[in-house]
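Sample pair:
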Amino acid sequence: MKRVMKLKQRQHKSRLQAGLAVLSACLLLGLAGAVAAQEAELGKISGRIVDEETARPLSLAQISVPSLNAGTLSDVDGRWTLQAVPAGTYDIVARLIGYASKTITGVLVVSGGNATIDISLPPRAIELNELTVTVADQRGTASAVLQNRRTAPAVTDAIGREQIADSPDSDAAAALARVPGVSIVDKKFVFVRGLGERYGNTTLDGAVMPSPIADRKAVPLDLVPASFIENVSTSKSYLPRQPADYAGGLVQIETRRVPGESFFKIGFGTGMETATTGKSGLGYAGSGLDFLGIDDGLRALPDLLPADAPVNRRNFSSAELEAIGEAFAPGWAGTPRDLPFGRSGELAFATEIPLGAKNLGLLAAAHWDDSWSRREGYVERVFASSGLADPEVDYGGDQSARAVTLGGLLNMDYTLAASHRISFNGLLNRVTEDQSRILEGFNLDSNTNQRNTRIQYVENSLVQGRLSGRHYFSAFGDMTAEWKAAYSRAGRYEPNTREVLYRESGGVFLWDNFIQSGSIFHQDLTEDAINLNVDIQFPIRVNGRAGTIEVGAARLTRDRDVLSRRFRFIPNRSIANEVRASSPDRIFSPDNIGPGPRQFEIQEATFRPDNYVADQTTTGAYLMADFELVPRLRFAGGARIERSRQVVEPRDVFTLGVEPLTGAELDNTDFVPGATLTWAASDRVNLRAAASRTLARPEFRELAPFSFADFAGGYLVVGNPVLQPSRITNFDLRWEWFPRPGAVIAVSGFYKNFRDPIEEVVFPSSEFIKSWLNAGTANNIGTEFELRSDLGFLSESFENFALNLNLTLVDSEVETGSVAQIFVPGSGPLEIDVVGQKRRLQGQSPYVVNAGANWASPSGRTSVSLLFNRFGRRISQVGTQFLDSVFEEGRNQFDLVVEQGIGSKISAKLSATNLFAADYRFTQAGDLLRGWQPGRAFSLGMTWQPLDR
């Protein structure tokens, strides 16, 4: 019973966290409403000051307005603010020892407004006098330094909040689809340069994100709403300050920063899909809080259910089994219903609160989205072997899903002194999908038509809190120290998956006593992660130019706990055809549950290895340098040492008195070097060359040497404890030209060689078994082209038009060999003969195209964006011994976004996605295996912002 109590407490705690987040957001936003009513008559000037060559923030720089005899110092992040500035036009002077002074002229301050000026100072040379620039020129220079990657030490791509706002993207995954070389699988998983989630990694505000997916490394990035994002960058070449466990790219998500000025906004939206809204789909009666994505306990395991004994006749009487069976929640299948419009809401504010001698900067946001989707023309097939034109299973039907996102964000900054700042970043978000499915068609095994119904409710959640500090010590050689401590919890809660199977007989569909017919699956997975980081940076001078030496250490601990239970209603002898022909809700009603000869009885179906605990500890330390070897040739590189220890232990939920299952342990220490050379051919042209060695570690479930029945996939899954990490050698080359602020033209090339790549394999036994093995070798080679610019260089009449084009071409090859080492439960490691393959890497598209055109009115109150994305066909599922691989066919997506200001405080945003209604198609040996038509989607949102940023 303790286990069930623990589960109940966890569910209650999760719901309480969500409720507190919503309540806190509402209270804080109420405070913002009061702040919004108090617009100051005076304005202010703020910004950030950095080194022009390295983009390193400059602390304790003097920023002054001579005509007002007013000034301030920049903080440890280079940020500064001049408060209580009367409306007018001013000159600003920036000074710092070791740098040329700079005067920015024509800075306009309006009443109640904030003029934002970012300043870049060049290191002082003997012949360099004080510089004077206009505010427009300085903003342009700052844009090239801060918002583009010209001064980055590695090969990096990024998109910011403004670019995301010009798209219909609702979450981080959708936004990343616009980045060169990035493709999105299943609308949530990021593949960088054709490499799957195994070869990627993701950080949120500098902390490695845990995954709520049981047997994948993938982090579903739909967990982070787009409205919470400040920027998303993708590091495509490795530097030792980063975690070593990636090869394709490191996705770094930064949540919205505290802006330094007050704003308040509230927004509402609605949406529809042509294949869904107003159509007849499927749904069922859920809990009272489903509109918030929170199960109120209806789907939870019943209180009568014991935790220390399996539910069967050996442990319980017939009356007790009847009571337990009837205690499960009602509802077994979706029923027809008209699908409604989607709806969404957003609240956000930022302000400063006096706290001691300084102000506490605060930003809070809340996001909610409730939408429906339906797979029109849904087809699901299975082919018995290659070359057969007729499928073994040929199903068609309906699948409807309700998706709810609910989240809150709270970020705070406090400057202890000009040289010391601490910050807190908090995020709580959950994404819930409630799915109903009915499939019907021919099945060769039964040689007749079958009908399959399923309902599935899944909550994916993420909670993260990060406390960080940044400190500048002039007494220690201008040393900068930064530390981070973050706690994250990812959860996956699947409490009520139910499946029923019918078989046609005499023109009537009758309930079939099949292994998953009348089944209930319950799973609760949590993974906790603690990230501790410290980084220390010392400025140096090499040949009179600025540089840095950086050292640091990091520790990441992950703990996973999985609780799974399976149950099935077993018939007591024969069931009357009248009952077998009725709906699932009628079949498993209380009237038909009991010890009678024509009734059903609940039975435990949990497998011993369904449950496990796992932990991983990764400790690393690094040393790197960043300086100019000779004028215009910059070196950034060093090495990192990482030790990782992973332990996976099966856990019996019942005391069975049998030999415990064997676990797995992997302990490795790796030396991981990386370096980038950047030649600044001119002030606007860079040529970068990077080389590194990284790795990809197995995940918990892949190491576990015990079988697991995959409820959704139909496989028996067996981990492989003899797996070893993959080692990857990476080479990158990039030429990039920044012709003017906000514009870039770039050409990149890359090559990766994999030793011992981990590949998924499915092989036949008495049933299909899925496992993982180390293949021999693999290679990945490709090129990227990118163009981003406004069209003002053509004519002044085109200066409000902008283009964004990028193309990625990738080719890969993995060779699996003809012998594989797998693990067979009860027998141990075993070498088997397999059909050798040479193929592309799983999930790798041979090309990805992104294009976008944007027009904005001179006032900025109107904008129109047209966006296009296409990826080439890619392997969705690797073929078995005798079956071809399953391919996801390439698909075009056209999106249109129109934004219009209404008055000075209201704006409207109209989005139209998938304008050409491209279908989803998965094929095997050229035959359609799975497919559906999603239709077109339209959404309209209105935002009221009474206090401008």
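The radius of gyration is 29 Å.
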